[in-house]
Amino acid sequence: MEVFYIKQELPINEQIRASKVQLIDENGEKKGIMGLHEALDLAYEKKLDLVMVAPNSEAPVCKIMNYGKYKFEQAKKEKEARKKQKTFELKEIRITPNIEQHDFEFKAKNARKFLEDGNKVKITLKFRGREMNYIKLGESVLQKFIEELQDVSVPEKKPILEGKNMFIILAKKADK
């Protein structure tokens, strides 16, 4: 069972503090400017609420509607909008500069799968010991990854060296 919470944002019925209001009925027809009590009486006659939709300076605009139903539909629309939002994770693949061909292919296949699922992939290359002297080798391995996955991804930035790690983030290519 779904539960919707109605949070009140617009002043309704007795919460309206204006002496004169511009009234719109439940069908959307303008009824003109009238006193607040007269507008409230019209709303109560129809067993609906008087809702202030636009607090103008002289005569605020009020509409006769079922406020509970209105808020329920607003909550439903918000929920639908949240459902359609894209979410993605950042998946990480760790490698070393002297990666073997089979290992490279396996890691590239996993990266491709992550990208096709809509996630971003961070490829982290870890230098150990004297490997720090061969940063160009690490850059070429990352470049090889970029070339291998260029049909499904685009690099967000150039390879970045942070301490003993060099990494690059790949994002899925935009669909045309």
Structure characterization notes:
The protein has 176 residues and is of the alpha+beta class. 33% of the residues lie in helices and 28% in strands. It has helices spanning 36-45, 67-84, 101-116, 135-148; strands spanning 20-24, 30-35, 49-54, 61-65, 90-95, 120-126, 153-155, 160-162, 165-172. A hairpin with a 6-residue loop joins strand 3 and strand 4 (61-65). It is rod-shaped, with a radius of gyration of 30 Å. The two termini are 39 Å apart.
Supply the key terms.
five-stranded mixed sheet, 4 helices, alpha+beta, rod-shaped, 28% strand, four-stranded mixed sheet
Distance between the termini: 39 Å
What are the segments in which pLDDT stays under 50 over at least 5 consecutive residues? none
Shape label: rod-shaped
Structural classification: alpha+beta
The biggest sheet, with number of strands, parallel, antiparallel or mixed sense and barrel status, is: 5 strands, mixed
Rg, rounded, reads 30 Å
* Helix amount: 25-40%
Arithmetic mean of pLDDT: 84
SSE topology:
Layout: E1 20-24, E2 30-35, H1 36-45, E3 49-54, E4 61-65, H2 67-84, E5 90-95, H3 101-116, E6 120-126, H4 135-148, E7 153-155, E8 160-162, E9 165-172
Parallel strand pairs: 1-4, 5-6
Antiparallel strand pairs: 1-2, 3-4, 6-9, 7-9, 8-9
How would you summarize what this structure contains?
The protein is an alpha+beta fold.
